[in-house]
Amino acid sequence: MALKNSYYERLAGGYLFPEIARRTKEFQVFHPEVKIMRLGIGNTTEPLPQIVASAMALEAVRLMNVETYSGYGDEQGNSKLRQALSERYKKCFGVRLDADEFFISDGSKCDCANISSIFSHESIIAVESPAYPVYVDSNVTSGKTGQFNKGKMQYEGVYYMPCTEMNDFFPEVPSGHVDLIYLCRPNNPTGAVAMASDLQPFVDYALEHKAVIIYDVAYVDYQKERGLVESIYQIPGAEKCAIEIGSFSKWAGFTGVRLGWSIVPKELVVEDTVPGELHRMWSRRYTTVFNGASNIAQAGGLAVLSELGQQSCQEVINYYMSNARLIKNGLYDMGLTVYGGTNAPYIWLKVPDGMSSWNFFDKLLNETNVVCTPGVGFGPDGEGFCRLSAFGHQENITEAIESIRMNLRI
Amino acid sequence: MALKNSYYERLAGGYLFPEIARRTKEFQVFHPEVKIMRLGIGNTTEPLPQIVASAMALEAVRLMNVETYSGYGDEQGNSKLRQALSERYKKCFGVRLDADEFFISDGSKCDCANISSIFSHESIIAVESPAYPVYVDSNVTSGKTGQFNKGKMQYEGVYYMPCTEMNDFFPEVPSGHVDLIYLCRPNNPTGAVAMASDLQPFVDYALEHKAVIIYDVAYVDYQKERGLVESIYQIPGAEKCAIEIGSFSKWAGFTGVRLGWSIVPKELVVEDTVPGELHRMWSRRYTTVFNGASNIAQAGGLAVLSELGQQSCQEVINYYMSNARLIKNGLYDMGLTVYGGTNAPYIWLKVPDGMSSWNFFDKLLNETNVVCTPGVGFGPDGEGFCRLSAFGHQENITEAIESIRMNLRI
To answer: Where residue B316 sits, what CATH number does that domain have?
Structure first.
């Protein structure tokens, strides 16, 4: 008698975004005449730069020609693309990594979910609260957590690191023992960033405890201020204790195209491994259960990494960041308390009058027809906040903020 | 102290194809003047039909335009593509499945590896021997098997179903209890197929034991003879006990583009689930840890499913199948014993003189400069065989067979 993986039963509620979609759809059914304005899911809306789209179109055309057709590539990714990423890290971030320390994936969501599979089933995970739900959910379904505690809005056995107004949304290093520490800077959802002095204690902790930091840099190109960390490997010692995960989704508009990368340095070690072993295990995972990212998407990635490609992508990012300013300033002018939005495409709004996140979601939808993302969906310390996203056409963002300004009863 | 996932240590040797690549590379280093002819990895070589490649080029161009740009799609796949697959199953195979019972992936290798994650950690798996290595390896790394027994060339705790000359390469139903049964028809590597009378006992077994059949149809479009099973759902009762996994890789030349699908019927149940529950769990897995296949690849998939697309893909398949005939007849004329190659792009060659698969691999490479795939890499009962692949340009296939004919010392 086959049995299901019963860990799935531990997953609390629906996954955040499908639940938002469900409530929004329900609202639309009852109010078919209303134009809903979405500041919820962080989905890119602006077209790809010509150099990037045409590189992919050209690659598709090359597949039509017997001389230029290509089938399976290396599972770990096109070697030119890995080399180009290695060069970008050196030139832009001052970080030296071999090309084969980069692994090309079909997007960072998969990497964030799969990375814990090379570590022991007994690993204790630590996550920021709030955080991108994938870090916890992937460990719930693989049995690395306990049951969901509805009172605390937490999974048993997971170490939550509160990111609150009190600590400027940057967590303290764990006081007890943990094995895998997920950090995301610039942060989704709070928009908070990291300086070297913030991250050094985490690297020191990881080295001392033989823990591993899983560092998500999906939004790093949205950082505008100087002196912020761009790669965990800018912190001395991180190459021995940290994995970095990056994405073309928000950097280059590849949310639908699907492309990302992970870095597992050869020097990375845990208690029972020698240098190189975890790197080989991750490589083995790629060759054993994955067949590479789409060749067309990888051709697009190479174009993104060209000089003109990087410039063009930066222009789109600047556009989204002007949206972020519109949202942040608009809400601030209404007297609301807002964070983020300066070095990240997310604005972290403190819900007024001590309402819950989901009640505010419903209120915002009903009164202003604007969809936000309830902060509690990102973890217990997200309660009382909601996330607004700067991804959208400027005229729609302007219209949404105007609707909030005119119609929100606070 | 973090620890590694020690199940990785159980993986026997390198993954088959990287090991072939290593030996081939080594040979080339010592014989730089030699032209190596590859009949090893089943990698497509012929260009995409124009209708398919241009649909993808067009989709890339659409991403350059603000009106037609698209970001995240549904994680489970484009609804039009799911609908088109549902219609193909109905029209071509006489199988009725709802569009939302199809899940679009980035290729069947990932689905084959991930599917067991929705079942209990205690599941006992059964595999054909020989079989595509991913079925076993994915269960080794997730701890669903025991140690590798070098003497038996088997993992402890796995039920191997021998596919040999004695049973025409179709296995008996398990005599003991198993939970997840992996079957692949037409078979990789033996090229053997299935009739309804072959599969009905497996479906009966699965229904009786509440086991699940995971049925891989990656090569179904290579079947030429009539009366062969094209989908497991042609067998009465299969919708309650079987999952089917399909691929655009060999059907439409998408080995590099990456696109596949899985079918988890709503009626599928195991011991501790109600109808719909496993379907919802698989859907939950998609939404939680995956972000959809590339939108460009999915546009290509839709073109494949058009009438002209299906015809055009069939022409490429016919080309490969004429290669298969060349290989099969060439080897047969030399007095060698060969199987497969009639309804599948693989020829299963019985190694002469009782040699081992890897010794024959080395002999073939040294004497004829042809690369094959050692049968033992597919499981213990593959020992004494090797797989030859019909994927290649016809002139190269002809040259390889000529070299074998002239140079192989048997």
So the answer is: 3.90.1150.10
Examine the domain organization and report whether B152 and B191 are in the same domain.
yes
- Supply the range of the domain harboring residue B163: 53-306
What 3-state DSSP class applies to A243? strand
The reply to whether A192 and A330 lie within a common domain is no
Q: Which of B288, B316, B391 to mutate to test the interface with A (most CBs of A within 10 A)?
A: B288
B5:A271 CB<8 A = no
Quick one: tokens of B95? 């199988």
Instruction: Verify that A265 and A330 share a domain, yes or no.
Output: no
Residues B322 and B272 in one domain: no
Q: Is A7 within the bounds of a domain?
A: no
Q: Taking CB atoms and an 8 Å cutoff, what residues of chain B touch A214? A: none
Query: Which of B253, B283, B306 marks a domain boundary?
Result: B306
The Cα–Cα gap between B298 and B288 comes to 20
Q: Which residues of B touch A270 (CB under 8 A)?
A: 1-4
The alpha helices in A166-238, defined as continuous H runs, are 196-209
Contact A71 B5 (CB under 8 A): no
Task: Considering only CA atoms, give the Rg of chain A.
Answer: 21
C-alpha distance from B335 to closest chain A C-alpha (Å): 33
Which residue of B270, B288, B294 is in closest CB contact with A15?
B288
> Do B144 and B172 belong together in one domain?
yes
Distance of CA A279 to the CA centre of its chain: 22
Grouping H, G, I as helix, E, B as strand and the rest as coil, residue B371 is strand
Nearest beta carbon to residue B61 from set A57, A118, A272: A57
Cβ within 8 Å, pair B109-A271: no
Does residue A42 sit in the same domain as residue A63? no
Using a CB-CB cut-off of 8 Å, the residues of chain A touching B202 are none
Q: Are residues B249 and B390 located together in one domain of the fold?
A: no
Residue B7 inside a domain? The answer is no
Contacts of A290 in chain B (CB under 8 A): 109-110, 113
Within a domain: A4: no
Give the single-character DSSP code of A119.
B
Chain B interface, best mutation among A63, A135, A313, by max B CB count within 10 A: A63
Q: For residues B155 and B145, is the Cβ–Cβ distance under 8 A?
A: yes
Residue at a domain's end among A277, A306, A335: A306
Report pLDDT digits (tens) over B67-91. Answer: 999 999 999 999 999 999 999 999 9
Domain presence at residue A253? yes
Q: Do A121 and B18 touch (CB under 8 A)?
A: no
Number of independent structural domains in chain A: 2
Residues B113 and B255 placed together within one structural domain of the fold: yes
Q: Is the peptide bond before A275 cis (omega within 30 degrees of 0)?
A: no
Helices and strands of chain A, counted as H and E runs: 12, 15
**A298 CA to chain B: closest CA distance, Å?**
10
- What does the pLDDT profile of chain A (410 residues) look like in tens digits? 899 999 999 998 666 787 898 999 999 999 999 999 999 878 999 999 999 999 999 999 999 999 999 999 999 999 999 999 999 999 999 999 999 999 999 999 999 999 999 999 999 999 999 999 999 999 999 999 999 998 888 999 999 999 999 999 999 999 999 999 999 999 999 999 999 999 999 999 999 999 999 999 999 999 999 999 999 999 999 999 999 999 999 999 999 999 999 999 999 999 999 999 999 999 999 999 999 999 999 999 999 999 999 999 999 999 999 999 999 999 999 999 999 999 999 999 999 999 999 999 999 999 999 999 999 999 999 999 999 999 999 999 999 999 999 999 98
Cis, bond preceding A189 (omega within 30 deg of 0): yes
